Each structure stands twice: as C-alpha cells, then as structure tokens.
Amino acid sequence: MGRGRPVDWMKDGVQLQLESLGEAHVEYGHLDFPKLKLSVVGGRPFSLGGDKLFRKKLLKARYGVQNMEESAQKIHMAAIGTPEDHSIIFLSHNGPTGLGSSVDDMCGKDWEGGGDNGDPDLEQAISLLKETSTYSIPLVVFGHMHKEMVDRGSRKMVFVASDNTMYLNGTIVPRVKPLDLGGSLRVFTVVDLRDGRITKVVETWVSVVGDNISLKEEHVLFCSSVKGSERLSNPKSRSTRFLGICWWCSLIWVSWKSRVEGIGGRRWWLAGNRVRKGQSGMEMVVGLGIEGGAGIGEGDGDWAGNQGRRGNQGRRGSLRRR
C-alpha cells in the first residue's frame, strides 16, 4: 500500500502490513539471495516471549500453528528449504531461550519474577538445524527485549556462542528521535559480514533532515580481527561492509545492506526492505545499487536505501514505490 493507492478498509490491519512487506515477509519462511549465497529465515511472529504462545487464534488461522512444537517444526522446515550452499541468518521478533536468565541478559526479564523470556521454539529449531545439517548460521537477530531496561540499566545486546553463531538484539527504543531544529535521528544496528563470518557490529545513529542524511554517532558493540576476536566499547571507526538491521516491533521485518566483492568485477550494495508509515498508510521500499555504476532497483528514502540508490558514489538509480 504505497502513496496514491487506495486503502482497502475491508482488510484487517495485520493483512495490510503483511502485503506491504511483500516478499520481505519471512515469518515461518525464508528469503534467498543467490548471489550472496545467503538466506534469511523468519521465526514466530507476535511473540511476547516465554513458554506460552501469544495470539493463539491468529497463529492457528494464519500459519496453522497451535503449539510450540509445531512452531519449532515450521521454523526448521523453512530453514531446510533454503539452498544447501547458503549461510542462514535467523530473523525473529524475539530471541531464543538459552541466552541467560539474569535481568540484563539478552532475553532476561527485567520485571517482577525474572527469568529467561526467550522463545523455546526458536531455540529448538536452531538446535535441530545445527544437529542435522551442515548449514552455516553466522547470525541470529531479533528484537522485542528493549536495550534500556525498567531500572534504566542496559541489557547485553551481543553474544557469540562457542560455535561462532552470533546472537544480536537490535531493539533500541525509540528508534527515531526528533531533532530540536527539525528532522530526526534514527538508529540502525550494522553488521559487517565477511567471508561468512561477522567481523564488526556497530550501533549507528543517522541524522535525517529533509534530503540531508549524515552519520552522527557510532558505538562498536563487537569487533573481530584476523588474529582473534575482541569486544570494544566505543572506538571511533567505520565499517566498510554492512548488513544493517532494524525492525518494527509489531512485525518481523528486516532492513539489510551488504557489500559483496567479486561479482562481475563490481562491488554490490544491497540495501533496504523496510516498512514505514506515511500519510497514506504503510509503504515498503527497497534499495539496490552498484558501487561505481548506476544505482538500480527501488530506493529507501532513509539512510540504507539512500546508499543503495546512489550506488555508493555511482550514478543515481531510479526510485520507485511498491
């Protein structure tokens, strides 16, 4: 539903949002990028965490899921439906169980009772895939559990398991902050993925004032060197290859940007797939550009898509609305 298109008031809000996502809707499904040899696999939508299904009637009606076991099986089936030579990134509204039960752990409850608020079906699906296949899983990314906790402390946002799978929580709220003199400050979590391994994770704040988009602040959450891995607090550095992730808490959605070298002698930027709310309702825009060449495809009006349609200093590509 983009600008200029009428709103179908006979459809419910969830259906309209899913249609806006188009092929980027990966709940219990997957989206493949053959040239990147990468697939994004979606987990369970509408999760509130814990061992109980939230919105059971909706999950049964839309996805045929009635319990955690069926949900885990559905996530696993989506994963094994991807090409065997692809790496898999799991994208889910909430993270898996098993990441700790302390209040400041990635999915730890920072409210009365405490404990692990992760999704057991996601943990089960990932564990089963690792046990029964040779897929590489460099990243599991999710949201729901806010970085700023109830007591005003900050929770852990990155964890690297012994098998080198990174678990990343990208939920920074608010994601968009108004600036005093107009415009907004927007946050993205940016992941540098090289040769199938994550080398850097950066919390990135971008200023958007009219058509002027600029990088304002970066906080490095993880950095890995050739000699080994190290965690850094706040060094001032920039990542050159990106996979940027953010999402809207009522739905699973992804905004990614990845540069891959050696495709036709050019460097490609893949940017976009995000939903934003405009005056006419929901719209999705996608950006894809080639460094040193013409930007092609659709462009996101925000930072990631801006890089995409510019083709990273290449000629400006087209900007079309879906």
TrEMBL record:
<protein>
    <recommendedName>
        <fullName>Calcineurin-like phosphoesterase domain-containing protein</fullName>
    </recommendedName>
</protein>
<dbReference type="InterPro" id="IPR027629">
    <property type="entry name" value="DevT-like"/>
</dbReference>
<feature type="region of interest" description="Disordered">
    <location>
        <begin position="299"/>
        <end position="322"/>
    </location>
</feature>
<dbReference type="InterPro" id="IPR029052">
    <property type="entry name" value="Metallo-depent_PP-like"/>
</dbReference>
